[in-house]
Amino acid sequence: MKYGFFDDASCEYVITTPETPLPWINYLGCKDFFTLVSNTCGGYSFYKDAKLLRLTRYRYNNVPYDNNGQYFYIKDGADVWNPGWQPVKRTLDSYECRHGLGYSRFTGSLNQVSAQVLSFVPLNDSCEVSRLVLTNNGSAAKELSLFSYVEWCLWNADDDMKNFQRNLSIGEMEIEGSTIYHKTEYRERRNHYALYSVNCPVDGFDTSRDAFLGAYRSPSDPAVVMNGKASNSVAHGWSPIASHQINVTLAPGESRSFIFVLAYVENKEEEKWEAPGIINKTKAHELLSRYQSDDDVEKAYAQLKEYWQELLSGYQIQSGCEEVNRMVNIWNQYQCMVTFNMSRSASYYESGIGRGMGFRDSCQDLLGFVHLIPERARERILDIASAQFGDGSTYHQYQPLTKKGNADIGGGFNDDPLWLIAGTSAYIKETGDFSILDEVVTFDDGGEGTLFEHLTRSFRFTVTHKGPHGLPLIGRADWNDCLNLNCFSAQPGESFQTFGPSEGPVAESVFIGGMFVKYGEEYAAIAESLGKKEIAEDARREVAAMYDTLLQAGWDGDWFLRAYDAYGQKVGSSECEEGQIFIEPQGFCVLAGVGVKEGKAQQALDSVKERLDSKYGIMLLQPAYTRYHLELGEITSYPPGYKENAGIFCHNNPWVSIAETVIGRGGRAFEIYKKTCPAYLEGISEIHRTEPYCYSQMIAGRDAATFGEAKNSWLTGTAAWTFVNISQYILGIQPSLDGLCINPCVPADFGDFTITRRFRGAVYHIEVKNPGHLEKGVSSLIVDGETIEGNVVPFVEGKKEYHVTAVMG
């Protein structure tokens, strides 16, 4: 069942009913100011950090779904309604929500009145602009009252929802004409405030939630709106809001527009006060002056659309498959931008309070983002590196505003250091910018070193943290946070090196071993490019030793083991009663090349298809755990089929798809790609439930009661890894240290295709022909009319355009 449709020409998803299975959301904002907005106008806004600088409140786990946002109420006689349907939920004559790239548009109509709301965050201002246009489509005049509504958060979202004994006394508001200022905590050595404004005179206002809603009422039936008259309330403590009342008379056929601006303003310390208790509004006035007319809004909106068009033009495909074109050209890249901005911090499943920016998460997000804005990727890599400790281990998370590690979570996730190599390597391959390695970055626990020194310590951390079988120690966990084989919580900066086999946690990870082979080789290649021959040779010796160890201690007979627990027992083995085979090592070891020449790689992937595959994707493990295993930890706390206990983790399905391209099976790689690709799931939205234009973290597995149901959409490494899979491995356009490699691996019937790829300041026009209907292999490569050896287009400094024809054979 569908609840809307793709409008590819407009780069929009059009939702045609407000009653979607779950709230279907969009992200407004490109850099510092962000709004999450649902298809019924729910959501919230923040500046840079969803925990520390939250502007508006949102209530998670709410009933009914999604019941706080930026709302517009229209009172037409006895009828009260919202353009986005919620929160009044009056049945509308028509409804439509168009989620686009950095904007959303809502259109509702009732009783011959239509209301259209366009909401977006401009490129260069810390605000959200919402233009509402009311139109009288009838033959008689209309007397309407328009009410706006937002509820302020008291900045720190965590404190806001817990510290009531204090927070109910600190709300401070100020009203200046049509602008309502939220200056709570401004007096507390703060230099910021928020505002909500409209570009016309108002007929009333409210800043007290109690006054606006009325006692024991909700946003679905606010007393002020139902009575048709604002109370002009000024909040003193309790729960501050911002609401404007505008009375409107519309002649038949007449339209009127109203421009609302929700903004964050930050003053320098010396600009803090105009007078005791009075905020300095100079910057606010300057900002608002830029959004006073329809022309102002149209100009800013056009700039936003042009920005996204230019950004996404860096990778565009034309093929006979509209789903691939749609996802690659628009939605997958768009989601990669969102995950880069958010990591796993703020969605409808992440409250924005606890996780901040993940070390592992942000490194992986870089993989799908680096081609979009390389300079921002460079900055992010240096931020991430500063969360590393001197021994090479890392904090697991850091706050985006302060760039400080999250001490509440700490470190000890032993895969984290290697992801820094992965992100840095991807950046250098994309840009050719080796200068980043000379940047000096501090270690969180003291001292500093170049970025290359940070990478070296990442590499050496794994070398010096091996267990009894010669495999990497897992620490608290590896990529699978719920596989807690040591039942041990590390303290910030604590090194596992201090523990010997008989005195501390010795559980080992085959998955990290696969990571070490792949990213150890990439580290060696970087060192070699820098002329550090001895370092490169030493690194390759370590990688070779790990390769052999994986084939010996890490092989179970038909697939790769997952790990050894703290007692030296196998995890992910045919010898186990439950959890006999896991997805992670099969995908990552093979994509790293382990076992390819020995034939074990194909056997492992065949075992995946036989044991883990399902119609909705590849499950994380089988058989599911039916009881709790203390020696395995949180993974067994989930019911069978959900999350890490045999759920379909979309994040690592691309690893297996990439692995299939490594051994040349393009048809199987594409089959895996399609199963978790949202554009292919649109027709079963009543089962899948999450948005059909973005990836979700997981889908309930075969053992679950709700097989096929997705959860945790938007903020997932699935976005970056799937874009890497489809763009670099299936379509085969791979950045390398030497240039752009053309190495497609597609289904035999995929057909010819063309790609436009921006790379190191040049535009590559690439045509891939497949006359023999093969799955892999390039028999000839023609660059600007000349046939060259191999399949790498050499990079020529200063050259701005390449025309490439690759013939598969």
UniProtKB/TrEMBL annotation:
Domain Glycosyl hydrolase 94 supersandwich: 12-270
Biological process, per Gene Ontology: carbohydrate metabolic process
Entry annotated with the keyword Transferase: yes
Origin: domain of life: Bacteria
Keywords for the protein's UniProt record, in alphabetical order: Glycosyltransferase, Transferase
Pfam families membership: GH94_b-supersand, Glyco_hydro_94
SMART domains the record matches: CBM_X
A GO MF term: carbohydrate binding
Keyword Transferase attributed: yes
Name of the protein this chain belongs to: Glycosyl transferase
Gene3D superfamilies in UniProt: 1.50.10.10, Glycoside hydrolase, family 65, N-terminal domain, Maltose phosphorylase, domain 3, mpn423 like domain
Organism name: Eisenbergiella massiliensis
Domain Glycosyl hydrolase 94 catalytic, first and last residues per copy: 307-732
Upper lineage: Bacteria, Bacillati, Bacillota, Clostridia, Lachnospirales
